[in-house]
Amino acid sequence: MGKALLAALCIVVAGASALSPADVKKNAVASLATVPLGKTPEKVQNGKDFYKYFFTKHPEHRKYFKGAESFTADDVQKSDRFEKLGTGLLLSVHVLANTYDNEDVFRAFVRDTIDRHVSRGLDPALWKAFWGIYTAFLESRGTALSADQKAAWEQIGTMFNDEAQQQLAKHADVKKNAVASLATVPLGKTPEKVQNGKDFYKYFFTKHPEHRKYFKGAESFTADDVQKSDRFEKLGTGLLLSVHILANTYDNEDVFRAFVRDTIDRHVSRGLDPALWKAFWGIYTAFLESRGTALSADQKAAWEQIGTMFNDEAQQQLAKHAAMLWLVAVCFAIASVSAMSPADVKKHTVESMKAVPVGRDKAQNGIDFYKFFFTHHKDLRKFFKGAENFGADDVQKSKRFEKQGTALLLAVHVLANVYDNQAVFHGFVRELMNRHEKRGVDPKLWKIFFDDVWVPFLESKGAKLSGDAKAAWKELNKNFNSEAQHQLEKLGLPHA
């Protein structure tokens, strides 16, 4: 009897030790009352104040901020850079607090955060340690956190760190698998290693003779001609070096992308079809397998991710050279509707998003959006360089659109889930505009998404949208577009 009672008490205590997701959200959001988001000077100051606190209490971490390694609180106060960084960090904390009761959205937001920081060389332990720093910062504002509020932030930090470490491991595995797959084509000065570069062009000209046209004077070359050519010995060594560099720098995104830009700068005058910058990676993995070693699924996935990031940066650099920075964004249609309360807008939009959940195993939902989009809105494919003629089947096979679909889906989920907190909603809209600042998006494109694309897409996925649900999306869009256009104006960009 005593053992049974003890066991029951242990269960009760264990159950009471963890807050429910709803209670975590409630307590965390309440604790952020001293650091609200907004555009007024005093609210913008909240983000700066964190970095003033951080650099004062934890100067050892200033090393991660290039050019600000010796900054004091006064330097932070005068810095436009830390105004922007502070606002971005504060927004992220508010989003995480407000989405904790929707774990799929919370974890997707964590993955996106890690993807945007993976190249910055942060100690992985900081992703957990940060939350202790942040709660201490909140208390430095003059209000002691309750035990429940501290417990809420501890749970947020634990789940954040769990997802962050998984995503960091995923990035590390790309480099590891790609480098391992290059064991059959090492670099070096010996004849057999120099031959590796030539062998690629022998394979390339044999399997893809249609691309010989890009090699002036070698348009009719065979594998034997390549073997005898000093030119292709040099070209082969250069190409092999580039592939090794890209594999070895994937975990340092700034270096990786800079190398891509340099590669494009050196090829821009050669008239290559832009689609080849993505297609190349399928050719290269086939070449590696032609060497007699079958690539594992993880190795193939690694090269697919490398090719996706390479192509992303390559197309941006090509567009820069052509003075045509075209990229379609998530566009929102304005409509006149009777205003709903923010709580009702959230309720109806979140409910309708059950047809397209986010998650590690739910990437197909994002792909399905672009399959729908490219099928029903072919006129807008022109904004996707290299995919202007894509059909639904092409989208299905594309890692590029898996990544873009996941990001778009996450953004819509976040907007729906934080709509009842207007400061966070508006902050996230401004952040989206900041991310698109250099992409040359026509501001009118932000107005057409929901009526023409998003609501029909949801219905194509089986969502039965009521009149209230459709009205909720219109209300959300009206609010989104208003804030978006204001931010575009602030950034000095065209606005509608």
From TrEMBL:
Keywords: Heme, Iron, Metal-binding, Oxygen transport, Signal, Transport
A Pfam family hit: Globin
Presence of the UniProt keyword Signal in the record: yes
Single Gene Ontology MF annotation: heme binding
InterPro entries: Globin, Globin-like_sf, Globin/Proto, Mb-like_M
Cleavable signal peptide: 1-18
Domain Globin positions: 18-169, 170-319, 339-489
Keyword Ion transport: no
Source domain of life: Eukaryota
Protein name: Globin-like protein (inferred by orthology to a C. elegans protein)
Species lineage: Eukaryota, Metazoa, Ecdysozoa, Nematoda, Chromadorea
